[in-house]
Amino acid sequence: MPSYCSAYKCSNNSDQGYALVRYPRDETLKRKWIAAVGRGKNWSPSSSQKLCEVNSYV
Ligand SMILES: [Zn+2]
């Protein structure tokens, strides 16, 4: 099963050849990523959710 990007309006997934990464454990960094995801400040990813290379800061 492919992994999908959790960013708003992004449907990139591992089957398309995108690298999917987990959210960082560091809270400051994680908040930065959440801001970039565009789902609002109160949204937070579950432990299994990932971001594609396009939306992440890697
Ligand atoms: Zn994405």
TrEMBL record:
| Keyword Metal-binding attributed | yes
- Show the Pfam families listed in the entry: THAP
Supply the alphabetized keyword list.
DNA-binding, Metal-binding, Zinc, Zinc-finger
Identify the residues that the record assigns to the THAP-type domain, covering every copy. 1-58
Any one GO MF annotation of this record: zinc ion binding
PANTHER family under this entry? AGAP005574-PA, THAP DOMAIN-CONTAINING PROTEIN 8
Q: What is this protein called?
A: THAP-type domain-containing protein
